[in-house]
User: Fold this.
Amino acid sequence: MKKVIYNQFGDERVLELVEQAVPAIQNDQLLIRVKAVSINPLDWKVYGGEMKLMSGSRFPKSLGIDFSGMVEQAGSQVTRFKEGDAVMGLLDAFKGGALAEYVVVTEKDITRKPALVSFEQAAALPVTGLSALQIMDQLAAVRPEQDVLINGASGGIGVFAVQIAKKRGAHVTAVVSTDAVTAATQWGADTVIDYTKQPINQLTQRFDVLIDLSTKLSLGEAKPLMKPRSVLVSTLPSPVTLLSSFVTNLFSGKKHKILILKPTVERLTTLTNLAGAGLQIEVANTYTLSNVREAYAEARHRKRIGKSVIVLD
Ligand SMILES: NC(=O)c1ccc[n+]([C@@H]2O[C@H](COP(=O)([O-])OP(=O)(O)OC[C@H]3O[C@@H](n4cnc5c(N)ncnc54)[C@H](OP(=O)(O)O)[C@@H]3O)[C@@H](O)[C@H]2O)c1
Assistant:
């Protein structure tokens, strides 16, 4: 089978397409024939060597976290899925391995793909959809009538964050660049701000929840936009931000929460139900395995609405 690997840290040029044997499964595992894999910003942080502490430095390494596909083979202890089921799921974020024609998973890694969701859309859902759900339910605990600002609302997480915050009954302000203004209104945002025309530090409104997906908004910059009892959610964990947020949260009504994605079967099921009920999933571009380097270079450097997806034959 074809698989994307890399043997050193670096930019997209380290990615190689190689031939490997199709892996064998244990009794509690499933073999998935992969149909599509989406690109996440974490991928290039890992193959770029920024996450060595989490990923380790042993090579060869694999790439690709979330995927969709068909169950090719199910081990004898597998109870919830059978051969031929269309599924979607995610692998360990720091080990990857979904960018391959076949991948081995356990039942807790996957969920059924809703019939109305394409394989490309399904691959675009797990990491970013679960992140959006964890932010809404656990970190920000968004409630009806709250004022929620989403900075970076047209990227992978943002598309879902806007829609889920609206479902929770919040008043949503989406901050995007010019090309995404119309789309953000379609996802349900009450107010849309084009950050290329109006910097958010000029806003006079104050928010209960700020969600920064751009990774460019510090707590210091966010504070003037926050109500006395409010929360900023950031998505870039580091020892320094984790420690400073811990101290901030002891003494201030303006809390700082940091996302560390923890996928659960329950949230994966909630996400599947939302997708089956019409959650809009944006696929910006599709690529093939053979142009994986181009796919990553474009995802990293070009503006896009939603996610880039690599489609397998
Ligand atoms: N900690 C965790 O467990 C975890 C889990 C998942 C993701 N993440 C991280 O969360 C972040 C967001 O993920 P994602 O998949 O949504 O990334 P993404 O698709 O790259 O989205 C980032 C968004 O930020 C916007 N942006 C860039 N500069 C901006 C600015 N100055 N002001 C406002 N918006 C700006 C971009 O819009 P334009 O392109 O239009 O500028 C883009 O829509 C990434 O850094 C990712 O690595 C962390």
